[in-house]
Amino acid sequence: MGKYRDRTFLALIAAATLANSGQADEYRTPLAGEPLHTVFMGKTIDIPAMDRSNVTALSFGGALYTPKQGETSTTPIGALFINRTWKNSRTRNVISIFMNDLEYDRSFGNLELVTQFENNTIPFGQREVVNNREIKSSDTIWGTVVGSAGPGLRYKVAPFQFDNDLKLQLLGRVGYFYAIRTSDTGSNLVLPPDTMLYGVKLRGRYDGMRRNLMELPHNGMAAGFDLDYMYRDKWADFGTTPDAVFTKADTRDYLQFNGYLMGVGGIPGLSERNRVLFSLHGGVTRKKSADRYNAISIGGGPLPGEAGDLSRPGYPSTMFNQVLVSNYALLALGYRRELAPFIYLHLRETFIWADRAAVTETNQFLFKSSTGVATTIGLDTGFFWNSALYLGYSWDTGFIRNGTSGSGLILTWSKSF
Q: What is the average pLDDT across 165-180?
């Protein structure tokens, strides 16, 4: 949902003639933000350079699962993306009503004041899924609202586009957590109390990637990490398992680490129409402090490409934020072929290991080790009205449905303004 494009479909088609026009001895992929000059059907097409630092985009779509994931066969997708950059400040916002991620930074040279706001306040009951079957008695409405602020350092790095930088931030965090029973919540399911949250986060980001015309990573490396400590002011004993007891002292505060490394480049001997990609995501939660409400979320969606979206761990064909884990490692290897400057075909193999959350029928909470492999074929293409489409099909060996293989189909449409 963080991907954005700003080209008319006619201009994108015109760009395709560049590869066959004889204007260059060696083909060069059109890159994001660059001007493009060509002739199409006897008419001169002149596309000026795009200001990628100021973008507004809407994304809509959905995903279809076969067989169902629990009781769910489809998931809608929708978000508003706003990015603005001024001389001494910048903001990046992903808005989807019940889940939002907002950031505003004020610069003083390389020193910054960083402010963030995030909320996960879905107003519907959330159920755990065991053996691909929803546990009705685990149904709970719960959510968090967190504000963060603190100092940061920011340096521009090659290739010196607006999204190429090295950042280190130290943020103090204050928030609120709530949990509400529903008519389906089991009588023996113990909920933690509503409480204030206090914490600190150390966050680092490096992005040295150059994107193509469709804002897909074309060349370079990116990496980042989050070290997050959170203290819950009020808490309770809950979620016991037959072989371990998780007391208030165990889970009241937690320390969690998440990191990623990504790269994309060419294939020796082949034109730059051919790209290979890899990404490695991983996370660790302090032993015995992980619970249903602080577990790391892994969801589906298109392959991350926009700088602020690279930290998102994605396992293809998964419902949004469906998989909760305490520890995990996720490796993705991919190949991309440029069929035209506005059409890209993807092949991707994703491997995952995770301690995955589950709630048994007796409402006992635990994490179980699980592995899986997913194969994905996808297509990114320009479309009419300054927009773009992503279509992807994935097949999973059984990680999502607890041993039962299945597939998923995702379609998203992104419109830039």
A: 97
- DSSP assignment letter at 16: H
DSSP-based three-state secondary structure for 263: strand
Closest CA relative to residue 185, chosen from 119, 244, 246, 128: 128
Specify the 3-state DSSP secondary structure of 39.
strand
Q: What is the mean pLDDT of residues 78-93?
A: 96
| Beta carbons of 375 and 352 less than 8 angstroms apart | no
Helix (H) or strand (E) segment spanning residue 10: helix 9-16
Q: Which domains does the chain have, with CATH numbers?
A: 9-416 (2.40.160.50)
Contact partners, residue 142, CB within 8 Å, separation at least 6:
126, 177, 178, 179, 180, 191, 293
The residue assigned the tokens 């992104």 is 414
Q: What is the Cβ-side half-sphere exposure of residue 275, based on CA atoms within 13 angstroms? A: 24
User: What is the structure's pLDDT at 340?
Assistant: 83
Residue with tokens 């980042």: 224
- CA nearest neighbour of 167 among 147, 149, 152: 152
Report CA dihedral (238, 239, 243, 245) to the nearest 10 degrees.
Answer: -20
- Which tokens is 398 given? 């059984």
Count of beta carbons in the 10 Å neighbourhood of residue 346: 20
Report the amino acid identity of residue 390: Y
pLDDT of residue 321: 64
Q: What are phi and psi of 221, to 5 degrees?
A: -130, 160
Of the candidates 145, 148, 164, the residue with the CA atom closest to the CA atom of residue 156? 164
Q: Where are the beta strands (DSSP E) in 189-322?
A: 195-207, 210-211, 217-232, 253-266, 274-285, 296-298
**Cα distance between the two ends of the chain:** 15
Residue-wise DSSP of 93-156: EEEETTEEEEEEEEEETTEEEEEEEEEE---S-B--EETTEE-GGG-EEEEEEEEEEEEEEEEE
